[in-house]
Amino acid sequence: MNAVVVIPTYNEADNLEKLAALVFSHAPEVHILVVDDNSPDGTGAIADRLAAEHAGKIHVLHRTAKEGLGRAYIAGFQWALERGYEAMIEMDADFSHDPLYLASMLEAGEEADVVVGSRYLNGISVINWPLRRILLSWGANKYVRTVTRLPVNDCTSGYRLYRRRVLERVQLNSVKSNGYSFQVEMTFRAFIAGFQITEVPIIFVERRAGQSKMSKQVIWESMQIPLKLRLRERKMRQQLNPTGVVSAAR
To answer: Are the C-beta atoms of 58 and 31 separated by less than 8 Å?
Structure first.
């Protein structure tokens, strides 16, 4: 499958080169798109060097300002759609998403429309999280499932694959959320549009280097977005899946 791994970056100079090598070691057929938000630590320059060294395999999309995770992914998705990729994979630049799982995600993506790398498919599979963080994440997913009725164990996972037919239909330009709740909104849009979502188990490892981008504003947005999505569900169904057809993919 013609796939590209979309990696948003902001101050990931210590991680990017090592991550690219791991991606290619586990999935040599994929391409990489680095979406850099004008990192002051030189991440963009490192990405440009890697693109020159791996011509046609690594690409760079430079943005002029830090606008958030959601906006970075949407820019990357639109770039990939314009260039004919069949599948787009979200991946963090901090090694919390192990490239080891790319093969299983790509395999699942041959049949499913959306593949979620799930931390909660087989119990709780996270490493280096304090109990408070585990409870916060687990509770957030339970809250999202309760409010939105999504049949997904890990609605907030940022390690996932989308087929192009999903991104072409979910109206990327109208996606409102921008923080971690971006993942929730994208999952919700794909589900009500009638696409098949599957999960593959992963082990999530807390970032090895740099600083976490979690903030009170991100947490607050994550609480509001599920409620807003549920209130807008009927209208969104009419827009995204007026015929009520469910994808035949399994």
So the answer is: yes
